Amino acid sequence: MSAKILSGKEFAAQIKESAKLEVEELKNKFNVTPGLAVIIVGENPASQVYVRNKHKTCEELGINSEVVAMSESTTKDELLAKIDELNADKNIHGILVQLPLPDAIKSHSEEILNRIDPLKDVDGFHPMNVGKLVTGSPALVPCTPAGCIEMLDLAGIEIDGKRAVIIGRSNIVGKPMLHLLMARHATVTVCHSHTKNLAEVTREADILVAAMGKPKFVTADMIKPGATVIDVGINRIAPKKLVGDVDFENAVEVAGAITPVPGGVGLLTVAMLMKNVVKAVKFQLEEKNS
Ligand code: GUN
Predict the structure, then answer these.
(1) Is 3 helix (H, G, I), strand (E, B) or coil?
(2) Whose CA is nearest to atom 9 of ligand 1?
């Protein structure tokens, strides 16, 4: 038996369509055109592709997009000043600093990201948004894990009462995923590089999320028959060959549903960013009226 393939393209199209309607509504009801600023420092080729994608998707949906390209030699203070300027700009509702930052300022990443106004933090990385996610308040939530939840809902896969296992404890995926799944009443276990008997734990999962960045690490024997497998990994193993954290060819024979790489969760991330820009506009309108 072969698993149902959860196509990122199909779900991303649905999410973008819904974001587009919300953008139109914001324009009609409030005369506001959402604006996103994406800051890219240096010339990392993968980052350039991601940023171009974000810009293109904004244009498709009627969101104003400003790409701020800064040179490799940009200092921390120059970048902070740019963020301050965008924080004060009324036409910009979302700010995203593309990661990774160049080596020279990488060690300041936390200070730089924390400078973004939490109401404009469409990556959901600011401690204020992280805290709200943990306590269950409305917040801007990191796009990739939020996209995984949206996909499960659109695919009609139940979360409530299910055993979920996440492999990977990153701030961008693993940790927010824990809180999102827990808020939806799953019983969640987070595994990582120090977990003993990992396969025993993953075989308990009705929903298995692989997000540790190791090519084809999750093999078929680690999956409970019929489980939903979400592969968040993107690993380049040859110049033109991307694979996920799951050994897809074999896992597809055991899982009930599975996301491919490429063509899976990656496409949801950009779609959810658009949703987050819309959410940011709404938060800012509420703040203005309170
Ligand atoms: N680089 C890779 N993934 C991400 C992300 O989710 N946000 C930002 N800002 N940069 C990234």
Answers:
(1) coil
(2) 98
Can you tell me which atom of ligand 1 is nearest the CA of 97? 9
**Which own/partner pairs from 230-239 qualify as long-range (CB within 8 Å, at least 24 positions apart)?**
230/6, 230/148, 230/151, 230/152, 230/258, 230/259, 230/264, 230/265, 231/258, 231/259, 231/260, 231/261, 231/264, 231/265, 232/144, 232/148, 232/168, 232/173, 232/265, 233/261, 234/261, 234/262, 234/266
Q: What is this structure's pTM?
A: 0.95
* Contact criterion met (CB below 8 Å) for 184 and 150: no
10, part of any domain: no
Per-residue pLDDT reduced to its tens digit, 114-147:
999 999 999 999 999 999 999 999 999 999 999 9
Show the tokens assigned to 137. 């308040």
For tokens 């350039």, the residue is 48
Q: Are residues 170 and 61 in the same domain?
A: no
Q: Name 191's bridge partners.
A: 167
* Residue range of the domain that includes 63: 31-117
Residue 8 lies in a domain: no
Q: Which of 40, 49, 121, 172 to mutate to test the pocket of ligand 1 (most atoms within 8 A of CB)?
A: 172
- Active-site residues: which are they? 54, 98, 123
| Distance in Å, CA 38 to ligand 1 centroid | 11
